[in-house]
Design brief:
The chain is α/β, with parallel strands linked by helices and 378 residues long. It contains 16 helices and nine strands. Bound molecules: S-adenosylmethionine. InterPro entries: Meroterpenoid_MTases, Methyltransf_25, SAM-dependent_MTases_sf.
Length: 378
């Protein structure tokens, strides 16, 4: 009875929002009531049905258990009255409330696809997956409260937003030999898992990160079984002894990727990080990545040296940084870049308007750069 009351009150809330006089239109009143009940029981499905919205923020509290979710059932996610209010508020006012126990997903279907591929139980409900993402978020924040973890972005694939993604997959498919890829600063490995879902052989990719607890949190989040998994290795890309400690990885990878890491560092740190990427990549291979960037012009520049933040660069400045770091000449590399709106963020921040996507085709003779890299880290 109590839940029936909650359903009705939420439905009436929807009607009330229309602020219309229904006294002479009881049919409209009951129609709105029915829509309200549908919204309450299956918010996402109903919004898709009525408005065609597929990627609106999904807010699901992970503190409710599976049994409670099953009770409300009905195909989509079922919400408690408090959650319903949060949802409605988010949608109406375009605001996402980052509660500590909540998960916010923009790409729900793509996210669930990753779990279906890696989980030892491919038939598990979406609610169970969301609950595990919530657990990973809570634990991950305690390890390091990166924006991508606080805002649940870590659980969503993003590598396919990069202009280079499709070409990388096509190149790999077209070659008669195996090609390898490493992600530097891979966190829980979501981008790597996306590559696997899109066909990259799991044995040909590797994740590196300074924080090995993220690897375990990732394995738990994806509920991995005994099937061959992605290799992960703990390493500090800024370590002056990076080359010695990773000697076996020198020039090992056709593709060296890094996302949302460089902007954490000041310029000196970024130079060291790029040298580590250059150390890992094969001659003639590809380095590619993305991080918060700057638009050309006076507006962007003021965020460059914001207190406590890493340095941001325009596309042109970043090319110079790569040349500085590696010792390669401009005519020996192919540098491509694009500045795109940072649309994955849940909360808009003035210093994070732009993502700089970039790629560098590495020279076939990378010796001058490699020699300088070794000299510079010694
Ligand atoms: C903001 S997260 C980005 C994670 C992931 N690449 C993504 O795009 O969602 C930054 C990641 O870089 C890692 N990291 C920070 N400093 C690092 C370093 N010196 N060497 C290697 N990884 C580092 C962090 O542990 C974290 O996993």
């Amino acid at each position: 009875m109590e839940s029936a009351g909650n359903v009705l009150s939420a439905a009436l809330l929807c009607c009330a929002l229309l602020t219309r006089d229904f006294s002479r239109h009881p049919d409209s009143f009951f129609l709105n009531c029915a829509v309200g009940i549908l919204l309450y029981n299956d918010l996402k499905g109903s919004l898709k049905r009525f408005c065609g919205w597929d990627n609106w923020p999904c807010v699901v509290e992970t503190s409710i258990n599976d049994k409670e979710l099953a009770l409300f059932g009905g195909g989509g996610f079922s919400l408690t009255p408090k959650q319903f209010d949060t949802q409605l508020f988010s949608i109406l006012f375009n605001k996402v409330d980052l509660e500590p126990d909540s998960v916010f997903l923009k790409r729900l279907d793509d996210t669930l696809r990753l779990h279906k591929k890696f989980s030892k139980n491919s038939n598990e409900s979406s609610a169970v997956v969301i609950q595990r993402i919530g657990d990973a978020r809570r634990t991950g924040i305690r390890v390091a409260p990166h924006t991508c973890i606080r805002e649940s972005i870590f659980a969503e694939p993003r590598i396919d937003h990069h202009f280079q993604h499709q070409e990388v997959q096509e190149t790999r498919r077209s070659r008669p030999y195996r090609m390898t890829l490493v992600d530097l600063g891979c966190c829980m490995g979501t981008d790597l898992r996306k590559l696997v879902v899109d066909g990259f052989p799991v044995l040909d990719i590797m994740g590196l990160d300074i924080e090995n607890r993220f690897f375990d949190i990732g394995r738990l989040m994806y509920n991995e079984g005994d099937t061959p998994s992605i290799k992960f290795k703990q390493t500090d890309a800024l370590d002056p002894l990076f080359c010695e400690r990773n000697a076996r990885l020198e020039s090992k990878f056709d593709f060296v990727h890094s996302a949302n890491v460089l902007h954490l560092f000041q310029t000196e740190g970024q130079l060291a990080f790029i040298r580590s990427m250059a150390f890992l990549v094969k001659p003639g291979g590809l380095m590619w990545g993305r991080q918060v960037g700057l638009a050309n012009g006076p507006d962007g520049a003021k965020y460059k040296h914001e207190e406590g933040k890493g340095t941001r660069f325009t596309a042109g400045e970043f090319k110079e940084l790569i040349l500085d770091a590696t010792g390669w000449r401009e005519e020996d590399i192919v540098y491509r870049s694009g500045l795109v709106a940072y649309s994955e963020l849940r909360i808009v921040k003035p210093g994070k308007n732009w993502v700089l996507q970039w790629s560098v085709r590495v020279p076939f003779d990378k010796t001058p750069g490699a020699r300088r890299i070794t000299e510079l880290v010694e």
